[in-house]
TrEMBL record:
It is an enzyme of class 2 (transferase). Its EC number is 2.5.1.18. It comes from Neomonachus schauinslandi (Hawaiian monk seal). This is Glutathione S-transferase kappa. GO terms for cellular component: mitochondrion; peroxisome. InterPro entries: DSBA-like_thioredoxin_dom, GST_Kappa/NadH, GSTK, HCCAis_GSTk, Thioredoxin-like_sf. Coiled coil: none annotated. Keywords: Transferase. Gene3D superfamilies: Glutaredoxin. Belongs to the GST superfamily. Kappa family. CDD domains: DsbA_GSTK. It comes from the Eukaryota.
Amino acid sequence: MGPLPRTLELFYDVLSPYSWLGFEVLCRYKNIWNINLQLRPSLIAGIMKDRNQPPALLPRKAQYLRNDVRLLGQHVQIPVQFPKDFFSVILEKGSLSAMRFLTAVSMEHPEMLEKVSRELWMRVWSRDEDISEPQSILAAAEKAGMSTEQARGLLEKISTPNVKNKLKETTEAACKYGAFGLPITVAHLDGQTHMLFGSDRMELLAHLLGEKWMGPVPPAINARL
């Protein structure tokens, strides 16, 4: 019997394209490395409001982010594109309903969390589709393989105290780990906790884990893409 898997927590928000990049890389490695990957839907607005000005509000940073995300998408082999009305998507519509829905999924159907999260990212960061309206969230859930009945049942719960409090607790947990944005990956190793910010710390994560880093698309995955 080999060593027990090490626990990794990924705190993310579907409003963050860097969260998508980190999410896909960790999902690719979860069956290669000896890890137990735990997905933690969080609210980036709750982290950023008292810690940092969103980089996209600064013109030169905004232009850099567009190019950076495009190039990283090609490198990681994810079809990411900036929404045409970026500021409306980020600042006006936000992701509160989507992240509450993912919180409800994590509470009641955790086996669907990866797929539903991915479909919400695909909507907003690949096809420039809405993720704030109920019908948009339902469409993502159904495309991920959830039944209409299941999805509607979860959608009815996103305004309940249980779901609201769970999302708030997860976001606060990210802040306690030191988050000033998303994504963050938290590795629990030998009684110590390591917080890594961003989607570009995977090589360092591999070092901490004592695992082999084979790039963002490891050979076993590359053969299927």
